[in-house]
Structures
1.
Amino acid sequence: MSWTDERVETLKRMWNEGQSASQIAKELGGVTRNAVIGKVHRLGLSNRTGVAPQPAPAAPQAAPAPAQPAAPAAARPEPAAAPEAAKPAEEDDSPIPMSAARRAIIPAGQPLPPQPSANEISPEALAKVSEVEKGAKKLTLMELTEKTCKWPVGDPATDNFWFCGLPTQSGKPYCEAHVGVAFQPMSSRRDRRR
DNA sequence: CCCTGATTCGC
DNA sequence: GCGAATCAGG
């Protein structure tokens, strides 16, 4: 397999969606996670943040060059992300707008099984879950394995029901995001690494 | 042991 | 440019 434009595009999209290299490799097929990571580096997008920080290579500018109003060079707005024409089919692609993903998921009345005894779950975790569910594999009961997140989504009495299916982090039954809401430590633990 | 990304280096 | 092997970490 080779890196066709299409495959590279998928790679970029998934990488920016926060998918892991192994997941991307699985999706693309014919490549290993190493290949994916290697490509990611070659493309120079190891940093998943949408906007490149740009280490300000600005020249020291010894002399401010007073005279000569010069042209309105001004600051470079940095085009940043292009509008990206929406794809016809395919799922909706959101660049992780943490702020917007703050709706009340878990509307009262819905049969949410592992309903955490505690009523307050970290908003971060909730946001992450709603995010993750958009990209869930939507597995059926039979498709679950020890490595797939078993978090149920939707109403079991309707067709709108599936299991998350994303990779479990370790020996847990859920993916990282769902572990976050499934197991709430005795005391709210605050630790943000990375 | 499962996984993650990062780096190296022969091809 | 590519990616397996390896490294470093959770």
2.
Amino acid sequence: MVSVHGWVIPRSRRSEPPFFTKNQIISVLEQVGTLLQLDGANPFRVRAYENASRSLSSHEDNLWETVQEGTLIEIKGIGKGIAGLIDEAMNEGTWGDLDSLYQKVPKGLIEMLGVPGLGPKRIKQFHDELGIESIAELRSAAEEGALANLPRMGKKMEERILEGIDLLARFTGRRRLDIGLLYGEAFERRISSISGVQRAQLAGSARRRKESIGDLDIVAAVENEDIEKVTDAILSIPGIAEIKGAGDSKISLILESTIFEEAFSNSTIDEGVLAALGGEAWEELESNSTIDAQVRLVPPHVFAYTMAYFTGSKEHNVRMRQRALDMGLRLNEFGLFPLDGLGDAKGLEAAANGMPAMDETEIYEHLQMKWVPPEMREDMGEIEAALSDNLPSLIEPYQVKGALHNHTTASDGSASLSEMAEAAMALGWEYLGIADHSEVLNIGGRSIGVPQHLVKKQGNEIREMNDKWSTEGTDFRILHGSECDILADGKLDYPDSIRREFSHVVGSVHAIRSWRNRDEIENTEILIKAIEDPTFTILGHPTGRIIGGREGFPLDMHAVLRRMGELNSDGVLKACEINASPYRLDLDWRLCKFAKSQGVPIVINPDAHFKKGLKDVWFGVQMARKGWLEEQDVLNCLPGSVIEERMMEGK
DNA sequence: GCCGTTTTCGGCCCGACTGTTTTCAGTCG
């Protein structure tokens, strides 16, 4: 459901400029786009606001400085109008005439956008003609049959809206990447095994490894004469909760977790993904858990084009089509065609005259570009990099040699030191960093941190184990760190003398509530103060977000990373974690490239609380890939013998 | 509202599906 929470124009709490932060500006611009749609504005004007919001969020420089320099309009997508708006907001603390727009559009209309089949046009029509301002009013109007009499409406639309309202209540929100991939892999395998399907592959945000997945897209290559047979077979796959629609080229479904039973017993799931998922995520699925899925059926010779198209992202595709147009070509899900001589041929008919492509590499070659890995297709600079042959060589899961943030029974983990070490060795790792919680941490009134007097005991155990491996000639070691709480005032838990004994200190915020009650500027200052402590090594789950659960606390992460970069250039090691738990995936991948540009090393940490949790590193690697990171950018790609030294040097 | 070797106006990515119509508008991805 589109949450209505937060749909008010922000008021500044500050007494001097800048009155608003970059994140506040970005969110207002995005909301204005939506509000304008509901107000019936010119769709291109709507897109201008959406584009401005997007381009600002990938703009890495300090926005306040840009405003002061007067160079706002040099940012692509920001012209005179929006630049004036941003200038006014930051300098004066006012939003021009946007107040009236926020006032004008009833909040219930925003919620209605979440109803499948309802868009801004119909919502506006209902509002203008019938005075409908909320989902509740919409439901009763539909039940009374009041909607069917409107122009271009009818009984069927009315029913669809009622179903849509129910659906919205039942199947709300997106799925975490791990859950989405479980469904996606299972569904892909089932479709691949249908006779008549020549190839089938998962596309969409799952293939791009987004941290959360709205619905699954699967492309299947099927000859024309097999379409009917294959469609019937797909519709009879067990695990389908509902069929939403089925045409010649597209099938829309809702899947439920019963799809897994046979898929798992046949071990048909991709081994790499299954290993990463460890089966844990599946066991946790509720029986009423569902996910939307679309299957596209296309002739084999256009499969690559359709894969590229439905892998997205939408923004990447727009840029690709623009690139094609620049070369006098048209690109769509069926092929790439010269614009002249295309005539009236559309869709598949036109594909006969298109440029052939056996795989995606050839599509990019036709456009004189290097193939872009799916994870990078977000229009975050990959188009330019692919055109100039400057794409990074992305990190691979096998390049990770250990991890630095994991727990044992000494705090809230469920496995002992030696059990965790064995599991790490089984993964082929050369080291395991243990970072149990510090003393202060208690969750639900129960203290789970390691008290001061037990820190030394843990250190002794680790030393004994390391000595044993060393005499045996085993290339494995445990690094004795701590996940040390960053207190609300920016101080670190434990006395200095204890912190200095650890090989590394992962500083993490756990008392999220007090950080959420402060503003971005204050939080940023306090967090930077904590990072500057000489014993501080790694920033753990920087914003505290839980995917699908809660937003992180307000923070200017660019400013934090800039400061960490300065400290690194002074020779002090300050690394930033990508917490690899699929619940967190924090640092956000969108910030990885910036961290790299500032010279901040990244550590991919599973934050494992049990043996299988170590495998979550796989998800962290996916995020690092989305963030353009290479092997040398990631600290825990260093071999065991080197990483100890690196941490000593960095103090 | 933004943008511009076609720069101050007239474009702005493209197609399938659905339900409403009898040629098309709205929605979705």
